[in-house]
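User: Structure please.
Assistant: Input sequence and predicted structure:
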Amino acid sequence: MKFLIGIISINLLFSTLVEADIYRYIDERGVVHYTNIPKNDRYQKIFSSPENNKTAYTALVQKIARQYMIDPMLINAIIETESGWDRFAVSSKGALGLMQLMPSTIKDMNIKNPFDPEENIDAGIRYFRALLKRFNGDLKLALAAYNAGPSVIEKNNRIPDIPETRDFVNTVLSIYNNNKRKSSPPIVKIKLSDGTILLTNTPDLYR
């Protein structure tokens, strides 16, 4: 069966104060439909009472990102930019979940439920790691490919003149660098036994 998301009838018009159930059904063409207002009994409930538990999600990011040797703070920045930590986020282009995965990526990564936080984060990290490898570790190009698609980036091997893509790359890097600065130990001045003055953020290594 083809896994296509041709019609996404999600009426997620709720805030953190509103509760809603999410239903899904796959029609005879293999098209997956999501909604919070089922029109018939073909829909099956897959979630109840949406929540935005950022603390739980960042813990998942820590665990999964380290498995794939990707900086968790970078993935946090991607999620912050893509979905604002809303596990039920749906873009106008059909991207789903915390890491805003497109239907083609959902299919390639063999995702069963794109709104499941662990499954979404795991697939998103695997996909981003593949992009980093594809673009020889160039972080900016990998981020641009995550937003615009790798084929667009490979045409000229640079970030395209697409405002949305440029904004995405700049925003992710800004959040990432800011979080790294906040988490880095302060730089202190120490004097070594030979009289050398050293500036370091790991003074315990020299004591």
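The mean pLDDT is 83.
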